[in-house]
Design a protein that fits this description.
Its cofactor is methylcob(III)alamin; Zn(2+). The chain is of the alpha/beta class and about 800 residues long. The chain folds into four domains: about 5-285, TIM Barrel (Alpha-Beta Barrel), CATH 3.20.20; about 300-575, Alpha-Beta Barrel (TIM Barrel), CATH 3.20.20; about 590-670, Methionine synthase domain (Methyltransferase, Methionine Synthase (B12-binding Domains), Chain A, domain 1, Orthogonal Bundle), CATH 1.10.1240.10; about 680-795, Rossmann fold (3-Layer(aba) Sandwich). About 45% of the residues lie in helices and about 15% in strands. The chain has 31 helices and 25 strands. An eight-stranded parallel beta sheet has the order 1-10-7-6-5-4-3-2. It has an eight-stranded parallel beta barrel with strand order 13-14-15-16-17-18-19-20, surrounded by seven helices. The chain is globular and about 95 Å long. Residues about 580-590 have low confidence and may be disordered. Bound molecules: CO-5-methoxybenzimidazolylcobamide. CO-5-methoxybenzimidazolylcobamide (B1M) binds near residues 690 and 698.
Length: about 800
């Protein structure tokens, strides 16, 4: 029986850790574990057998890192196929005779995709394709993409796995104690994105212990009808005598496994620190339990990296922001031509603030490279706002590029009933797991009657379903004509909305403002028509969310049509309403002071525009130190605060960090004063394991301005390298910066070495993690809280 059949009928047990068991059997630290598939096949086989003997139904191949990027660390990048084929063969030899299945394990690359890192979608896709093709060729029963923390990378891996062959794929993420992946994805969003990319099951592995995963498992099982895998670590790792120890017992792990099956999980196993004993106990506990088959109706769900938005036939209507569209907007057209994203960012934030739950993105300017323009917009927006995006273009190439880059589940705006559109757009939606807005027009144009538009909608749905796109992922736009020219068109549109909902059970959307072309006081007509469309059952509208009347109409109509049950949302909004009007057209941000603009730019990680903001501020007479102290540093500190409290995620931290670094590079020459008198030499470094260098760089420039020769060793600097440089340059002072509690522990080691070697140099320390008290405890000669204080202290230390 195949994996897909078995997983619906029985609760399956999957094996536990491989790496730790290989190490126990002699795999040297730092050696490539996958190489042992070739050099030590008997050891790998023995481990598989241990798991099979205790009841594992699925064993995973020793191929977690058998992919080019990882093997390159060992100079073995040309052995991808060899290691994968060997690993599958070993597993099959022991699994198949006992009726167990072989899952080809695929792990993440360990580097980020753009815009967070250097890798392009195509590069990542190619690497996963190479590995998955080898696994499929070797005959795995399923592939498991495991321990993924970045949804963007998971998307590329799933698309590659689907292209590699017709093998079921399990998409398994790692979530931390906050219940999100390290790039901020929640369990529902993870499930929504992967199920449309063809995953046969979704899951969580590694991460933390089973206790910390309980909520994640509940959320996963409630968010998808797919089978759910749960393979936690044997508790949280602890460091004991320099070794990592996992303390969760087999009995406790088994207990949780039973509970997870009750929540709806159906593939149970373990990850780091688990042994055959753990898996045996899990097998005993879940043996004979049957999987809970779920058949929930979720409606149309779209997702950004961090948030899912549901459009449900009975749920609240949703506003799709229309302002990121250059039609009729000269400033936005000019920005797109110049390759900038300033207005795009500002309008995106303003629309979300005004209540848009999804943002439509259109870059259609004549004579512009629209693929590049869309790429810029998507990369800027997907880190800036949590609202999912609606890709609005008629060019399949532009749509495809957007869908490759987007780390979520987008909507394509739009497909229609024309043959050309069906043939080009539907395959893109299928391949990249996107939802669709379906326009009810075809080769004959817009049909005049509601029943004809219904027929077009029916045809689009049928073609989409034939291609494997589920009908709930299609939202039908019944099209509104201009009432001044064709008054008979309005009732037909309203009728079509009702018919599509009743007869096809689909959700509907509309670009409302078309209705009022050519009439005075257009907002009035728009709002009245919008209320009528909502009464007819409209589920979403592409509109200007900064138009207060439209948003109020949406909220009030939701109450009147019974979609806002007990008017809860309406009341909450009215109570929270401070009476301030929602900003219109020109965002208020444009009137902000230069310091406020810079502060906001750091908060939003606006590395594209930060230099021009700095130039503007300098041109207005502000000085570099003022910009740092009053805008940039407070901005990055606020980012740190939000990251610490869990409202910002790693991508935002990274973009803000890059924005800061770029700002500093621009300000460096402004800060440098080139003093002549030399007062001493400082060897400066951010300690080992720590890549935070923004503060250290400021200290570096300030010291140089005050007559110190600064030997700046950079960041993540080894302790011995610091000592070596101090000796070589006869340093008067060693300056160490650390921003993490985990890295400041290198400071006492350096101080100890200075003393051991009898170096005639003082050690000063600083950085956000360090305190005066800590400096005293470790025997440092001084501590400085900021760069100005660092200069004062350094002068004092050199007498
Ligand atoms: Co990270 N980060 N970060 N981060 N980051 C912190 C430090 C954190 C406090 C955020 C938080 O959780 N709230 C937290 C550490 C928690 C802890 O240990 N207590 C944290 C974490 C967890 C992480 C990662 C682990 C995140 C992850 O990957 N999951 C990761 C670690 C990477 C690593 O180092 N191995 C990470 C990564 C990053 C980025 C790369 C994205 C980026 C750094 C980019 C870069 O530096 N090139 C980044 C950033 C930007 C921050 C925050 C938000 C800002 C740091 C900063 O630049 N501050 C930070 C939160 C925070 O500190 N509030 C945070 C502005 C700078 C001017 O201040 O460096 O303190 P500071 O320097 C001051 C003074 O301290 C003093 O003068 C400077 C000027 O006034 N000073 C000295 C500094 N050095 C001195 C030396 C001296 C004297 C004075 O004498 C020699």
């Amino acid at each position: 029986m195949s994996f897909k059949d078995r997983v619906r009928k029985e609760v399956l047990v999957i094996d536990g850790a491989m790496g730790t068991l290989l190490q126990q059997r002699g795999l040297p630290p730092g050696w490539c574990p996958e190489e042992w598939n070739v050099s030590h096949p008997e050891v790998v086989k023995e481990i598989h057998k241990l798991y099979l003997n205790v009841g594992a139904d699925i064993i995973t191949t020793n191929t977690f890192g058998a992919i080019k990027a990882k093997l390159a660390d060992y100079g073995m990048q040309d052995r991808v196929k060899e290691f994968n084929l060997a690993a599958v063969r070993l597993a099959q030899e022991v699994a198949h005779p006992v009726g167990a299945m072989v899952a080809g394990s695929v792990g993440p690359l360990g580097k980020f995709l753009q815009p967070l890192g250097p890798l392009t979608f195509d590069e990542v896709y190619r690497q996963f394709l190479e590995q998955c093709q080898a696994l499929v060729e070797a005959g795995v029963d399923l592939i498991i993409l495991e321990t993924f923390g970045d949804i963007g990378e998971m998307r590329a891996a799933l698309i590659a796995a689907a292209d590699a062959g017709d093998v079921p794929v399990v998409a398994s993420f790692t979530f931390d104690e906050t219940g999100r992946t390290f790039t901020g994805t929640d369990p529902e969003t993870a499930a929504v994105v992967v199920e449309r990319l063809g995953a046969s099951a979704v899951g969580v592995n590694c991460s933390v212990g089973p206790g910390q995963l309980e909520k994640v498992v509940q959320q996963l099982t409630q968010s998808t009808n797919l089978p759910v895998l749960v393979s936690p670590n044997a508790g949280m790792p602890e460091m004991v005598d320099g070794r990592t120890v996992f303390r969760e017992t087999p009995a406790v792990m088994a207990d949780y496994a039973g509970r997870f099956v009750e929540y709806g999980a159906s593939i149970l196993g373990g990850c780091c620190g688990t042994t055959p004993e753990h898996i045996g106990a899990i097998h005993q506990r879940v043996k004979g339990m049957t999987p809970k088959i779920r058949s929930n109706q979720f409606g149309l769900r779209v997702a950004s990296r961090v948030k899912t938005v549901t459009i449900h036939p009975a749920g609240l209507p949703v506003a799709i922001g229309e302002r990121l569209n250059p039609t009729g907007k000269k400033a936005l057209q000019a920005e797109i031509k110049e390759g900038k994203t300033e207005i795009t960012r500002r309008d995106a934030l303003a629309q979300v603030e005004a209540g848009a739950e999804i943002l439509d993105v259109n870059v259609g300017v004549a004579g512009v490279d629209q693929v590049a323009a869309m790429e810029r917009a998507i990369n800027a927006l997907q880190v800036l706002v949590d609202a999912p995006l609606c890709i609005d273009s008629t060019d399949p190439e532009v749509i495809e590029q957007a869908l490759k880059l987007y780390h979520g589940k987008a909507i394509i705006n739009s497909v229609n009933g024309e043959e050309k559109s069906l043939k080009t757009i539907l395959p893109l939606a299928k391949r990249y797991g996107a939802a669709l807005i379906a326009l009810t027009l075809d080769d004959q144009g817009i049909p005049p009657t509601a029943s004809e538009r219904l027929a077009v909608a029916r045809k689009i749905v049928q073609r989409a379903e034939e291609m494997g796109i589920p009908r709930e992922d299609i939202m039908v736009d019944c099209l509104v004509l201009t009432v001044s020219a064709q008054p008979e068109g309005v009732p037909e549109t309203l009728k079509a909305i009702s018919m599509v909902k009743q007869e096809l059970g689909l959700t509907t959307s509309l670009g409302v403002s078309n209705v009022s072309f050519g009439l005075p006081n257009r907002p009035l007509i728009n709002a009245a028509f919008f209320a009528m469309a909502l009464a007819a059952g409209l589920d979403a509208a592409i509109l200007n969310p900064q138009d207060q009347r439209m948003m109020e109409t949406l909220r009030a109509s939701a109450v009147l049509t019974g979609r806002d049950v007990r008017a809860e949302k309406y009341i909450a909004r009215e109570q929270a309403n401070t009476g301030t009007a929602v900003p219109t057209a020109a965002s208020p941000k444009s009137a902000a002071s230069p310091l406020e603009v810079l502060y906001q730019a750091v908060l939003s990680g606006d590395k594209d525009n930060i230099i021009s903001y700095i130039d503007q501020a300098l041109a207005q007479g502000l000085n570099a130190m003022e910009l740092l102290d009053k805008a940039l540093i407070p901005g990055i500190e606020e980012v740190g605060r939000r990251y610490g409290e869990g409202t910002y995620f790693l991508p935002q931290l990274m973009m803000a960090g890059e924005t800061m670094t770029k700002s500093f590079e621009r300000l460096r020459p402004e800060l440098a004063k080139n003093p002549t008198k030399r007062v001493g030499t400082v060897v400066l470094a951010t300690v080992k394991g720590d890549v935070h260098d923004i503060g250290k760089n400021i200290v570096s420039v300030m010291l140089a301005n005050h007559g110190f020769e600064v030997i700046d060793l950079g960041k993540n600097v080894d302790n011995e390298e610091v000592i070596k440089a101090a000796r070589e340059h006869r340093a008067d002072i060693i300056g160490l910066s650390a921003l993490m509690t985990t890295t400041m522990v290198h400071m006492p080691t350096v101080i100890k070495r200075v003393k051991e070697l009898g170096l005639n140099c003082k050690v000063m320390v600083g950085g956000a993690a360090v305190t005066a008290q800590y400096a005293k405890e470790i025997g440092a000669d001084g501590y400085a809280q900021d760069a100005v204080e660092a200069v004062r202290l350094a002068k004092e230390l050199v007498g």
